[in-house]
Amino acid sequence: MTPTQYFNEALSQFHSLASFHKDQLSIADRLVRLNTPSANLRNLFLPSLAHLIIDVEDDNAPELTIWYAEQAHLPKKLTAPIWDGFNAQGYNSSIDEDDVQLFFQPWQKQVFLYSKSKNVGIYWVRSAEDVPWWECTFSFRIIFHLWTEALPSQLVHAGAMAKNGVGILIPGQSGSGKSTSCLNLLRNGYNYLGDDYVWVEIGAEIKVFSLYQTAKIEPENLDKRFADWKPFIVNKAEYLYQKAVFNVNDLFPKACISVSTISAILLPKVAHQIDTVFRKANPTQALMAMAPTTLHHLPHNRQNAYQKMMRISAALPSYHWDLGFDEKQFITSFNDFIENEFM
């Protein structure tokens, strides 16, 4: 069996369904259709994308269609990928076809498929209970990444905040202070586009589009900095051994925006000092803040994605963002930085 045959066999099961839920999204001004027979999965995956849902006629042709289901709602059993060689990041170079691509981590009970020629993605999981908790905070991230290969677009492991038309891209690996800084700016009046993964559109201007409205906070960080947000925790029963998950629209409904032009890239780092300081960085440093973790999470089409992130980092000014302890000065310094550099 080839990957294309495997994909077509799975797709035929979805096409034989008598009924299913339909939802339509606008992602970077492109129409995406989500189809599922599984109400449980719909309830899990839609909250992170709820701000993107639109009401349009069914006869509008989508640019991407995603079918997703748990096994109980399909007419026949879908077997796990039969090929050996998938690495820890879900990639298998021995079956990387021109058309169909697979993401599969053998210790998990879920599969992502995408056909370039059909612009169709498939997500299958054995049961809703088997969906990893973090998967629902960036729903269909793998499929969106595979789709963007042919687009002037790139998913980037970064946060993005904006104020008065000035958008800032904030990449950084875990522990860099990226998410905490974004959420501190959020509660101090800045507009929110994301704090983990965002959609970057590469054109005459570099723009960032909101993709997910879900924030995640480590329990210790929650108690220390965001304890007043506890009533809004989505996973109240589990957050102590996962992370606290929030829908940002529940916290600050007026803060979420859909798009902003990017004016700069900030490279956060916990500096173990009192004051927050900004210093000039170069494009290579910006690229190295974006590329390693993005390519680790999204292992397919690496050369293509790397080239796009090179274009992003070369087109924008970059700054080291040395994060200090003083939270009041953190905000004051950020306001001064925006005003002095871009207004």
What overall form do the CA principal axes indicate? globular
Beta content:
25-35%
Report the span from N to C terminus.
59 Å
The number of distinct structural domains comes to 2
Helix/strand/pairing category: alpha+beta
How many helical stretches?
9
Order of helices and strands: HEEHEEEEHEEHEEEEHEHEEHHEH
Question: Tally of extended strands?
Answer: 16
Mean pLDDT equals 95
Point out poorly predicted stretches: none
Q: Major sheet, described briefly?
A: 6 strands, mixed
Helix percent reads 25-40%
Key phrases:
9 helices, 16 strands, 2 domains, single chain, Serine kinase, 5-stranded mixed β-barrel, 6-stranded mixed beta sheet, globular, 343 residues, alpha+beta, Phosphoenolpyruvate Carboxykinase, domain 3, 29% strand
Summarize the structure.
By secondary structure, the chain is α+β, with helices and mostly antiparallel strands. It has nine helices and 16 strands. It comes from Pedobacter changchengzhani.
Structure description:
This is Serine kinase. InterPro entries: P-loop_NTPase. It comes from Pedobacter changchengzhani. There is one protein chain. This protein is α+β, with helices and mostly antiparallel strands and 343 residues long. It folds into two domains: 3-150, no CATH class; 153-213 and 256-342, Phosphoenolpyruvate Carboxykinase, domain 3 (Alpha-Beta Complex), CATH 3.90.228.20. It has nine helices and 16 strands. It has helices at residues 3-15, 39-45, 141-147, 178-186, 219-225, 248-251, 283-297, 302-315, 327-342, and strands at residues 21-27, 30-36, 64-70, 100-103, 110-115, 120-125, 153-163, 166-171, 191-194, 197-202, 206-209, 214-217, 244-247, 259-270, 277-281, 318-323. The strands form three sheets. Strands 1-2-3-6-5-4 form a six-stranded mixed sheet, with helices on both faces. Strands 7-8-14-11-10 form a five-stranded mixed β-barrel, surrounded by four helices. Strand 5 (110-115) and strand 6 form a beta hairpin. Helix 7 runs antiparallel to helix 8. The chain is globular and about 60 Å long. The chain starts with a helix and ends with a helix. The relative contact order is 0.12. The model has no long low-confidence stretch (mean pLDDT 95).
